[in-house]
Amino acid sequence: MALKSTVYKAELQISNMDLNYYHGHNLTLALHPSETEERMMIRLLAFALNASEQLSFGRGLSTEEDAALWQKDLTDHITLWIDVGLPDEKRIKKASHRADRVHIYCYGERTAPIWWEHTQRKCRTFGNVQVDYLTPGTCAELVTLCGRTMQLHCNILDGEISLGNQHTSVSVVMENWL
Fold first, then answer.
1. Sequence spans of domains, the chain
2. How far is CA 41 from CA 56, 83, 120, 170, in A?
3. Three-class SS of residue 151?
4. What DSSP line would sit under 73-95, residue for residue?
């Protein structure tokens, strides 16, 4: 018998003063049995950082042809493909050909630098790929915000990002690798 995804609900208020975007989103996130809460919270953060009315979550880890998140226009053309983790070169190539822009949020204190060392040359050839690395401390703190029902706020001002709830706030630290 296959394990089912666990459903999480998030009420996310976004105040992105850098992009003049102020909006609330009621989100349903499915935590795939093979996915960690850390990865799910990074997907939620990626949503907050790229929020728009057209941005949506893909169908999940078990559907390889989907992005973690993507934004499509009215013709179903992919304008933004977002991946979370350490995608292989084949997946990055596919994404860069299918979408106008590709944004990868990678993490993993030991694995991400090794992945980047092997992948960066290829990523640079595509021209539409952006890679940001979330520091281990940020990832660990994001997990503390996780709950089956979440009420979160994300504030962005002058490139400074914080994600939090009524009790705690996480200062998001990312390094732009590409």
1. 6-176
2. 15, 13, 25, 12
3. strand
4. -TTS-EEEEEEES---HHHHHHH
The length of the chain is: 178
pLDDT digits (tens, 9 = 90+) for 33-74: 989 999 999 999 999 999 999 999 988 665 677 899 999 999
Q: 6-176 in CATH: which number?
A: 3.10.640.10
Q: What are phi and psi for residue 4, nearest 5 degrees?
A: -100, 155
Distance between CA atoms of 68 and 58, rounded to whole angstroms?
Answer: 5
Residue-wise pLDDT for 114-142, tens only, equals: 999 999 999 999 999 999 999 999 999 99
Tell me the C-alpha distance between 176 and 178, whole Å: 6
pLDDT single digits (tens) 141-175: 999 999 999 999 999 999 999 999 999 999 999 99
Q: Kindly give the interhelix angle for 136-144 and 37-49, rounded to the nearest 10 degrees.
A: 100
